[in-house]
Amino acid sequence: MKAQNLCTFSKHILTLTESANVANIIQNYAKTNQLKKAKQLHSQLITTGYPLCTYLTNHLINMYSKCRELDYAVKLFDKMAARNFVSWTAMITGFSQNQNFVEAMTTFCNMRIAQESPNQFAFSSVIRACVSLGFVEFGRQLHCLALKCGFGCELFVGSNLADMYSKCGVIRDACKVFEEMDFTDEVLWTAMIDGYAKNGDFEGALLVYKRMVNEGVVIDHYVLSSTLSACGALKASYSGKCLHSVVVRLGYESEISVKNALTDMYSKVRDMEGALNVFEFDFEPRNIVSYTSLIDGFVEMDQIERALITFVELRRKGIEPNEYTFSSLIKGCANRAALDQGIQLHAQVIRFTFDRNPFVSSILVDMYGKCGLLDDSIRVFDDIDNPTEFAWNSLISVFAQHGLGKEALETLDRMIHRGVKPNAITFVSLLTGCSHAGLVDEGLNHFYSMEKTYGVVPREEHYSCVIDLLGRSGKLKEAEEFIKNMPFEPNAFGWCSFLGACRIHGDKERGEIAAEKLMQLEPENSGAHVLLSNIYAKEQRWEDVKNLRKMMRDANVKKLPGYSWVDAGNKIHIFGVEDWSHPRKKEIYEKLDSLLDMMKEAGYIPCTESIPLNVDEQTKEKLLHRHSERIAIAFALISMPVGKPIIVKKNLRVCADCHSAIKYISKVVNRMIIVRDNSRFHHFADGLCSCGDYW
DNA sequence: GTAGGGTTAG
Questions:
Q1: Domains in chain A: ranges and CATH
Q2: Distance between the alpha carbon (CA) of A188 and the C1' atom of B6, Å
Q3: Which single residue has its CA nearest the C1' atom of nucleotide B3?
Q4: Distance between CA atoms of residues A253 and A454, nearest Å
């Protein structure tokens, strides 16, 4: 029987059969979201002139809630002459489904005041509201009440409880609920998998999945999506691929959430071919999540160009980008310091009104900072109404990268004053800031108080920061003592910091120890070899330099080639050492030569001592003058409008000679030059650098 | 007789 043909009934009072038929129609309208027809039927019922029975009103309340017309549902409920427990439950569910969680809870309380006993339906709806609000304490009370009423182990209530505890970060209680259940199903298992994942225990999530498979529980697309997401987070490519084969076997390849989870998993394990295969499989369905997962993969692979192309493609298809999309793209621009693209994306963020999103605004602070535009970064931060921890961390890290340790410390104070709790990342940035600014005591004080005062347990990276802090300031003995007393061995970053400090301060004995440790930890890392050869070269120990080079050859260690890049004319121009590939190479080298003359006239003396080659001075000078950052600066000088600050990015640290040379360049061409190397920013102007030569 | 649970990109 077709729904629309059922709308005839007696004009006086509805018979039982008629009521049942009408209820059936309303239910169908609710399911198919046919609000207009449902409203017509409702008016028809009113014209009979008789009050509607509770049973039909409950149906109408449910229908209006499902069709997102909560006001109608509330009006009906308020006017009801005889509510029963189903009416109350329908309202609680209605509020909960329409994201009106506080009302859902209030209605649950009112239901108890009205002395109606809540059943499993009411409990599951109100617990869901608790999950969304993160009200774990209220949820705990509901749990007690549910147990008292005999519904604590009911399957739906149990699933909601497990979900609530895990989403509120109390996975232990979720496990207790799970273990006490008489029956389980795939929904409850999914809540557990997702619970472990949301609490950061991705291995735990995979174990739950394995246990589920062993127990023969149905695997559906919810289970697969959640488990794939855990694989991605773990970068577990083998497990991910195994799950992919399960997806194929069970025929879930075209299920959008599974497809997206697969795309994301492949992106996270840096297998873009795999990600594209899934993304392009069967073409549809695709949505913004699919596109953003792909974009994020490209960004992580440092392929910002492909990320931007993917963005253009989704816009051409008429798909609306969201805050996730912009966050990923802007992060890509920040990593590559692609300012022009970053600014264009910022404009779009404003147009789409995502500028108030905490993730987007924080990444914008970071982007401007990483592009060297400190003032713009601060301006974006100041425009944020209630900065979250992400925004504060971004700002602190921006100050740190610019060597502004005092500002970083002040920002931490402001953050605390505003009631935002610092986390582990805050302290990494803060300690880095102190280190680059030579604020040794301040850095140490914060390191020793971070656990006591703020409850943040120092991790490997914090210890590395302290090694850097002490080493950079020349306190090599203290750094060595600190390393000895650490609860664990320093990681590669820690030894690298120590080695770098030994190089700056010319401590070859300690340097050799650090280099050895670093080579053991990361034999493929060329950094240790290069730093050590710099130390040897400084002492003119050419035999040692030769041996080291042989060692590198034998171990197949390739020196990471240095390159610099600059944004000009909406394009990123990349230059390597002695780069001859650019179409304007002739002009660039003419510019370099004329610069060298001007610099020497102004007093520049090349510092060739750290070049690990036994060649004559003039050759060394020439080599230095062909370092990629100088080529990039020369190119920027001939191609960018006068007055526009020159921002050059480099993948390695700027060498001491380039640092001195760029100071002279800034003076002789009277131009602000900003250089971002792999550890911090240098703002050169009028012959001076913002780092004050402490770096 | 009506009302309820778990997925995918920070």
A1: 398-554 (1.25.40.10), 563-689 (no CATH)
A2: 6
A3: A90
A4: 46
